[in-house]
Amino acid sequence: DGQNVITLQRTPSTNEFLRKVLTKSTPLAEGTVIMAVDQYAGRGQKGAVWQSEPGKNLTFSLLLLPSFLDPKDQFSLTAAMSLAVAKWLSAMLKVPAKIKWPNDIYIGNKKIGGILIENILKGKTWKSAIVGIGINVNQTTFPDTIRDHATSIKQILHRDSKIPELLAELCSYIEREYIVLKSGDFKALLADYKQRLYRLGELHVFLVDDVEVTGMLTGVTETGRLQIDFNGHMVDFDIKEIAFVI
Ligand code: BTN
């Protein structure tokens, strides 16, 4: 609910920080948020880095304890968190925010944010989920390698935003989707997620085993595999098996 916010001036990664606190067996309440002003070694998916200019962006990790969730349904947590971010941004920016599978957030063809969820499981039960979220807020220049594919709230609204206020707003969207998740309505989450998928129903170039292939993105399976239609042949992929070409 955004009530338990711990703000760190400088830390390598809020996900790492939260993980360390948890492994030191300090019990933390569900909903605890670790926010960094300067996160200097942020991590992204597939071992990527998440770069953020000090003080300019929203970089935080949220602790969830989804013990009610069967690990086989863990994609629904990804869907719920992505939906919360996309809905919040769409409402604030008044432009559609899309979810680039599995959980990048795009405005047009530019990335505005990303999510890195790290699940801590103990056997077949769920201990905790570290939901790391990075949103470009007041940053307007980006490294060469991502310049053409990155955007920020400021680049769209042309003004600075107050980061703690954004965090509180986003947390209320997260809470709403988390309640849907708790209710067990995975079908609703999945349908909602599919509606917001970046490039849904479009022909697109993907990289599969280092080969460029063109197919139509048709949706995701219940377990979160990406479904592509290659001339009438439906194939699904997990995150390690396929990448978007741009
Ligand atoms: C991605 O785009 O691949 C995911 C990016 C996730 C970045 C956030 S910022 C807060 C949290 N701490 C990290 O080290 N990463 C996540």
TrEMBL record:
InterPro entries: aa-tRNA-synth_II/BPL/LPL (IPR045864), Biotin_CoA_COase_ligase (IPR004408), BPL_LPL_catalytic (IPR004143). The keyword Ligase applies. The keyword Ligase applies. GO terms for cellular component: cytoplasm. Pfam families: BPL_LplA_LipB. GO terms for molecular function: biotin--[biotin carboxyl-carrier protein] ligase activity. Keywords: Ligase. Residues 1-182 form the BPL/LPL catalytic domain. This is BirA family transcriptional regulator, biotin operon repressor / biotin-[acetyl-CoA-carboxylase] ligase.
